[in-house]
Amino acid sequence: MPDTVYNEKIRPFIKEQRSVWLPAAEEIIALWPRFTNESHYTNGYWVENSHELLGVLVIMEGDAYLTCDGKRYLISRNDAAIIPFGYRKLATGPSGYCFKRAIGLQGLALKVIMKAFHFDSLYIIRSFDRTKFNVLFDRLSMLLRARDPESIAEISLLSYSLLLDLNTLQGHISMPDPLMAARRFMEQHLSRKITIDELSTASGCSAKTLEALFRKYTSFTPLAFLKKLRIDYAKILLENEDIRVKEAARMCGYANQLYFSNDFRMRVGVSPKIFRERSLRHNMKAGASSCGDGEPETTGKVI
């Protein structure tokens, strides 16, 4: 069976705008959007495929039937779906029309992130606020079409920011808008130095107000919270043995590997090298203990 099959009779009437770029360095990229895709489906259209991609799908207008894990779900306007690896089928819903946006994610760190964020089964968000998603989708699409090697780090971090936002929704965490804006700025620029002035500009409030908000809602100062985000991202990267410690440090905004190792040890309690060795041993033991047990039943999560 081909990777993708679709209703060939209606395919000529489908409107799609797809942005794709796979840079030469893709084999060392922790997280990457394999594509962004904007599609208009007419009545009777369907497409099915099976990929090792994490799909993020948002219905802009109309509705669609999504089949995943052997179950069919109706997703409507303003609904979002996070679709795990494997078989999925999308078909126009009862309204006879579907306008949707989708992003397909891949990368060395993706499986670890999916496990950490519990995105390894279908996750549907009803009445999804798509404002931030649309901004990020448009930016990613533009960067993928431009194919500028200087944008590789930004594209990867935008992808991570998307998953962080979705994970935040899953946890029902509520923060004031200025705080969320500052946090999003951090997440999207983890690979470089970030100043308080930049965070103040991004959040639209003074440095003093921003620090008060961070202390109230996170118990951290802004720069301490930024360091926490960097180290949390580093832990995800280090669970993949193909990403070198030096590369993980760079991707987390550390030009000096020694400073990175010191910060990592202070927060985690062990060096990056020891953390990686323990993680790999733990994963090997977990994999061995699950052999012969069969696949657990997977059910979709809907909120």
Describe this structure in a few short sentences.
This protein is of the alpha+beta class. The protein has helices at 110-117, 131-146, 152-170, 177-188, 196-203, 207-218, 222-238, 245-251, 257-268, 272-290; strands at residues 4-6, 15-19, 32-42, 46-51, 54-68, 71-76, 80-83, 86-92, 97-106, 123-125, 301-302. The model is unreliable at 292-299 (pLDDT under 50).
Uncertain runs with pLDDT below 50, 5 residues or more?
A: 292-299
Average pLDDT rating = 86
Task: Indicate the structural class.
Answer: alpha+beta
The CA-CA distance between the termini, in Å, is 34 Å
Helix and strand sequence: EEEEEEEEEHEHHHHHHHHHE
Could you characterize what this model shows?
The chain has 303 residues and is an alpha+beta fold. It folds into 2 domains: 1-128, Jelly Rolls (Sandwich), CATH 2.60.120; 174-291, Arc Repressor Mutant, subunit A (Orthogonal Bundle). Helix content is 43%, strand content 24%. It has helices at residues 110-117, 131-146, 152-170, 177-188, 196-203, 207-218, 222-238, 245-251, 257-268, 272-290; strands spanning 4-6, 15-19, 32-42, 46-51, 54-68, 71-76, 80-83, 86-92, 97-106, 123-125, 301-302. Strands 1, 2, 3, 4, 5, 6, 7, 8, 9, 10 and 11 form an 11-stranded mixed sheet that branches. It is globular, with a radius of gyration of 20 Å. Mean pLDDT is 86; it is low at 292-299.
Detail the topology: elements first, then pairings:
Blueprint: E1 4-6, E2 15-19, E3 32-42, E4 46-51, E5 54-68, E6 71-76, E7 80-83, E8 86-92, E9 97-106, H1 110-117, E10 123-125, H2 131-146, H3 152-170, H4 177-188, H5 196-203, H6 207-218, H7 222-238, H8 245-251, H9 257-268, H10 272-290, E11 301-302
Helix pairs in contact: 2-3, 4-5, 7-9
